[in-house]
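Worked problem 6 (solution included).
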Amino acid sequence: MATAPPQKRRRGIYLLPNLFTTACLFCGFYAVTAAMNGQFDRAAFSIFAAMIMDGLDGRIARLTHTQTAFGAEYDSLSDMVSFGLAPALVMYLWSLSFLAKLGWFASFVYAAAAALRLARFNTQLGVEDRRYFQGLPSPSAAAIVAGMVWLGETYGLAGDALRYVAVVVTTLTALLMVSNFRYYSFKNIDVRGRVPFVVIIAVVLALAVVLTDPQLMLLVIFLGYAASGPLLTLWFLRQKRAKRRKPG
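Solution. The predicted structure is:
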């Protein structure tokens, strides 16, 4: 009895998650073009919009079981544009260009650190603890850089006047991305599970606080998250030392 020929595997990509990845890539591209035209507030807002798209594509892929190797690679390339090149170029055009070679160097260090951070993350998939990131995530780093630009534009602070602050913030943010500090990933939070009513109230209040002054509050939030890495790592080291000192 003749056996049926094996069915050929259909080639293609899943549309829905990759649409959000493409939207993330577009936001990063638009941020660069807006900055080139002197529209720095739009450029900064586009980077924050890219963060939302980046957060949605992964969650949608997991919820719809459409995770693929192609999607993971495409997401990394999109992240490099939106959270590596775009923030570096926006900050350079807004402020770092007034420092000549020093500004150029700081901008390049940020872009290179973002590339290294993404490469390290890809090689550690399935190996590291999902609850924590090693190094500041590139979207959070981009939020700090974009937040500073957005805040400056909102309050009428020229990039020229903040050029030394900008070079320090850009360089430190880059170093945090390639550091070994541990950052909480929030990946173990079950968004589909039940939570106490007080949690909903806290979320609503937090949104209300952010909306009162989004430029300032978003920058404060992400600066706080950046500072949490060294503090969390220090706490882990103290816990390990305390366990070693315990007798038996």
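Discussion: The chain is about 70% helix and 0% strand.
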